[in-house]
Amino acid sequence: MRPSLLDPLFAPATSLPGVGPKVAEGIARIVPSTGLDDEARIVDLLFCLPSRVIDRRDVTTIADAIPGTIATLRLRVDRHQPAPRAAKNAPYRVFCQDETGEIALTFFRAHGDWLVKQLPEGEMVMVSGKLDWFNGRASMVHPDAMAREDAGGLPPIETVYPGTAGLAPKTLRKAIGAALERLPDLPEWRDRSVNRDDLSEAPPTFRNVLERLHDPEEPDDILPESRAWRRLARDEFLAGQLAIALVRARLKRHGGRSFISKGAGPDAIESVLPFRLTEGQKTSISEISTDLAKPEKMLRLLQGDVGSGKTVVALMAMAHVAEAGAQSVLMAPTEILARQHHATIAPIAEAAGLTVAILTGRDSASARQPVLDGLASGSIDICVGTHALFQQGVTFHDLGLAVVDEQHRFGVHQRLALSAKGLNPDLLVMTATPIPRTLVLTAFGDMDVSRLTEKPAGRQPIQTASLPVERLSELAGRLEKAVADGRKIYWICPLVEESEQSDLVSATERHEWLSERMGSANVGLIHGRMSGPEKDAAMAAFKSGQTRLLVGTTVIEVGVDVPDASIIVIEHAERFGLSQLHQLRGRVGRGAEASSCVLLFRGPLNEVAEARLKVMRETEDGFRIAEEDLRLRGEGDLLGTKQSGTPGFRVARLDAHADLLAEAREEARLILATDPELSGPRGEALRILLYLFGRDEAVRLLRSG
Ligand code: ADP
Ligand code: MG
């Protein structure tokens, strides 16, 4: 249970004055929610840090202000001169003065009542904006900010928050101010004798740093390098590392087990494979079997570009575990992928004498029951599925290994979900994201890593070309020939952010258009709005060759495998990110046939889009593409996360705070060495820290022991 002390912070943001559902939605867009749902909480506002400040500390005079630049002035309001009724387009002017002269504040389409309230005659006001001179008279058109001095004037430093699209900065600032007022006094979780940047001053408290960041005294206060931000980063890293360390400690407590295989299981698989393993696959397989044989739990990440052949590595690991008498699961992120994994794995594994099943959320009760029975009795060796595998009602006879195919999302969450269910199998996480080593550390903690760096032999390079959409008909003509030659083609239409509707329309429209040209029997359609069985049918028809051209949205991005598909057209390629283009292109080039990729774009291209298409034409190397992607989009975007911090973090940033990471790991280790259950007074405070940064799954582990 969350300590009640934190309740005010976890109340919905809408409980703040001035925050309605729309504002809350805007907030949720800027900062990912700490809560389990997507609802914005008050605590989320606290972690929404300013990106820059407007510095108004230098108050100047009308005479001294530099024309054409932003000036902050202290003025006395002399008189209002509303626009004459007849001249609708004439401005409303407010004449003000200071000791150096007169200035006209000029407003177009102004609301006179409002201006009279803002700038009452005879009052002293502070005004900030661009000052200009016309015909020897100073004027300021639509000042950026105005405030009466009796109401406190303008803040000398005003914070500006990132990405407040659709959210008035003032509204956000107010909401954050109100959120700060809800911040209760929290016990200190820092050991104040260590990790200090500056030993001469008392280290700032959590409250201090939030107040400082949201209400800075100096512009530098809001830099990531500032003491305040560094303390927050330390806190967040500590929470993350503590969570990871708690998972580890629990895994250890439950003891690992050693799965012994003489190699018969894996050998049986290898003998029925239609190809020879690459060196990288062999190395990874041997690293994994070594882990499996050890009495400790395995926690290993298998990194390999799309098409590098991760599935067979997983299969060998599962065969190893089966030989040792235990069960394995392979969990896929989507239904399609789960079915596809099953379709690939089952014939091979069954030929090698293993029993394979599939379990997804979509199965009928009658299909489900025998699988549940087989899992409980132990007659099923390998079960492929979605997260339905870990839902209630699923019990395993003896689960030894969980393989999680994460494609290109990642997190410690699955691991925690497993542990929370009381399951503690060895764990192999597969990802196609070429995550840099430092990110592996932050997101996964101390995971061992195996990498597949080469593609299976016999693969032909993929020819990649870009083509303006004006040449659509010409392209269609060429594709007609290709279809006549018996080739299979993917045609991808973009998924327009947050607009399933328009994505759907473009895919169906294109499907219709292509059906007319190529004959509707040849052209299939697949998209996210279709039901599961409809999607399966579309995939199956394409796989079997009944349809030759499959029009789809990015549903087919994730790992879909039709080895004899050899052409992919990506429409509106300019809208896709580099790693997504790479993932999509990876759908072809999987067989022995030479493949091609056509990036169909609608010009004019901006610089970044142009650079992306160029990289795509130049290389197929996933690591190079990831690097370019990083360069073109900034680290935060690499994994498609929306926050400004490093992926998986809310305020900490690897670029500015990397030095704090190792320190946090060490500290987490020390803490758990002295107080493994976090039960002392500092332990209590640390639990609060875990909740604050959304690492509370780890707290649950403590209790369930
Ligand atoms: P990914 O790493 O993207 O999950 P897959 O495991 O789906 O890749 O493998 C992609 C394709 O390559 C599959 O059709 C698979 O059968 C094939 N494949 C895997 N390993 C080899 C190999 N050593 N030689 C030839 N083909 C292979
Ligand atoms: Mg795969």
UniProtKB/TrEMBL annotation:
<dbReference type="GO" id="GO:0006281">
    <property type="term" value="P:DNA repair"/>
</dbReference>
<dbReference type="Pfam" id="PF19833">
    <property type="entry name" value="RecG_dom3_C"/>
</dbReference>
<dbReference type="InterPro" id="IPR014001">
    <property type="entry name" value="Helicase_ATP-bd"/>
</dbReference>
<keyword id="KW-0067">ATP-binding</keyword>
<keyword id="KW-0547">Nucleotide-binding</keyword>
<dbReference type="InterPro" id="IPR045562">
    <property type="entry name" value="RecG_dom3_C"/>
</dbReference>
<keyword id="KW-0347">Helicase</keyword>
<feature type="domain" description="Helicase C-terminal">
    <location>
        <begin position="471"/>
        <end position="631"/>
    </location>
</feature>
<keyword id="KW-0227">DNA damage</keyword>
<dbReference type="InterPro" id="IPR004365">
    <property type="entry name" value="NA-bd_OB_tRNA"/>
</dbReference>
<keyword id="KW-0234">DNA repair</keyword>
<dbReference type="Pfam" id="PF01336">
    <property type="entry name" value="tRNA_anti-codon"/>
</dbReference>
<dbReference type="GO" id="GO:0005524">
    <property type="term" value="F:ATP binding"/>
</dbReference>
<dbReference type="InterPro" id="IPR011545">
    <property type="entry name" value="DEAD/DEAH_box_helicase_dom"/>
</dbReference>
<feature type="domain" description="Helicase ATP-binding">
    <location>
        <begin position="291"/>
        <end position="452"/>
    </location>
</feature>
<keyword id="KW-0378">Hydrolase</keyword>
<dbReference type="GO" id="GO:0003677">
    <property type="term" value="F:DNA binding"/>
</dbReference>
<dbReference type="InterPro" id="IPR027417">
    <property type="entry name" value="P-loop_NTPase"/>
</dbReference>
<keyword id="KW-0238">DNA-binding</keyword>
<dbReference type="GO" id="GO:0016787">
    <property type="term" value="F:hydrolase activity"/>
</dbReference>
<dbReference type="InterPro" id="IPR047112">
    <property type="entry name" value="RecG/Mfd"/>
</dbReference>
<dbReference type="Pfam" id="PF00270">
    <property type="entry name" value="DEAD"/>
</dbReference>
<dbReference type="InterPro" id="IPR012340">
    <property type="entry name" value="NA-bd_OB-fold"/>
</dbReference>
<dbReference type="InterPro" id="IPR001650">
    <property type="entry name" value="Helicase_C-like"/>
</dbReference>
<protein>
    <submittedName>
        <fullName>ATP-dependent DNA helicase RecG</fullName>
    </submittedName>
</protein>
<dbReference type="Pfam" id="PF00271">
    <property type="entry name" value="Helicase_C"/>
</dbReference>
<dbReference type="GO" id="GO:0003678">
    <property type="term" value="F:DNA helicase activity"/>
</dbReference>
